[in-house]
Amino acid sequence: MKKIFAVMTAALLLISVFMFFASAAVIPGERQLPRLTDGADIIDDMDEQIILSLLDAESELYGMDMVIATVSSTDGKSVEEYADDFYDYNGFGIGEDASGVILLISMQPRQVHVGTCGQAIYVLDEDAIIDDIYSSLKSGAYGAVCQEFIDSVEAGINGYSQGIYDDGNYDDYNDDYYDDFYVEQYLYKKNKSSNYIGIGVISLIVGFIAASIVVSSMKKKMITVQPKNQAGDYYVKDSMVLSVSEDRFVYRNIKRVPIPKSEPHNTGGGHSGGGTHISSSGRSHGGSSRSF
């Protein structure tokens, strides 16, 4: 009896341990962290608030999570593995396919990774995004890196929505998905902007007509005012005499403009990426990494 009890106790213990580790690897149903996590503390606090607001607004607008994370170390993982796990196990991603893109900046090793999931795999070019942020990344302007990342992602989405992909070439890949994305995302934004423009134009026209009526009424009341056709009518001879004339230095304004340097596509050491892969969570991800 004691032997049976001991076996049952051991079995329950093993089941408990298995359930613990299994629960630790479950993808949460809701987002656990903000879309900007500066674990390496390389972004100014003031910039963080602005960047986070932009990430939230753009993510909701396009229905695709835009995530930025900085870390001091990847804890022995590759930047690709770390980025995938960070994205999956912190509940990022919008929709059933968890659509979104993540920028991971690691200080040790000094590598950057752009990873995609869901719709973003087909919409975005990870290498092109890294190209756009690489100059600022090398110079240590991490706030600028974040802004350029957001701009590059938005440009990629809009370019794909117009049928432009990879250096301006038209891409016929996945036409069904392209139609859905165009209707649900790009046209929504375009129509929304068009409505605002129409309202603005109507408001300007109404305002112009109202102002014209008021000015015309005021003009009719000014019967004492007569037009002067020559500037000499307003000039009084010898009315101004300069007794002292001198040149005085006030200030100096110097503008320095950096000369842009062209960056080869794979500049900066190691480079990897392209295609898709399966992460530890079982999801499909795209991505590209580069040293800086």
Terminal Cα separation, in Å? 65 Å
Supply the helix-strand structural class: alpha/beta
Overall average residue pLDDT: 75
Report strand %: 15-25%
- Write the CATH architecture name of the largest domain: Roll
List low-pLDDT spans.
Answer: 1-25, 165-179, 181-190, 261-270
Q: What do we call the CATH topology of the largest domain? A: Diaminopimelate Epimerase, Chain A, domain 1
Query: How many strands appear in the DSSP assignment?
Result: 8
Query: What does the overall shape look like?
Result: elongated
Q: Give the fraction of residues assigned to helices.
A: 40-55%
Rg value? 31 Å
CATH class of the largest domain: Alpha Beta
H/E element string?
HEHEHEEHHHEEHEE
Q: Total domains, how many?
A: 2
What features would you describe in this structure?
It is a single chain. With 292 residues, the protein is of the alpha/beta class. 47% of the residues lie in helices and 16% in strands. Helix 3 links the parallel strand 2 and strand 3. The longest helix is centred in the last third of the chain and has 47 residues, at 175-221. The model is unreliable at 1-25, 165-179, 181-190 and 261-270 (pLDDT under 50).
Write the layout of secondary structure elements.
Blueprint: H1 2-24, E1 36-38, H2 45-62, E2 65-71, H3 79-89, E3 100-107, E4 110-117, H4 120-123, H5 126-139, H6 142-161, E5 164-165, E6 169-170, H7 175-221, E7 271-278, E8 284-291
Parallel strand pairs: 1-2, 2-3
Antiparallel strand pairs: 3-4, 4-8, 5-6, 7-8
Pick out its properties.
292 residues; alpha/beta; Diaminopimelate Epimerase, Chain A, domain 1; six-stranded mixed β-sheet; two-stranded antiparallel sheet; 47% helix; 16% strand; elongated; disordered N terminus
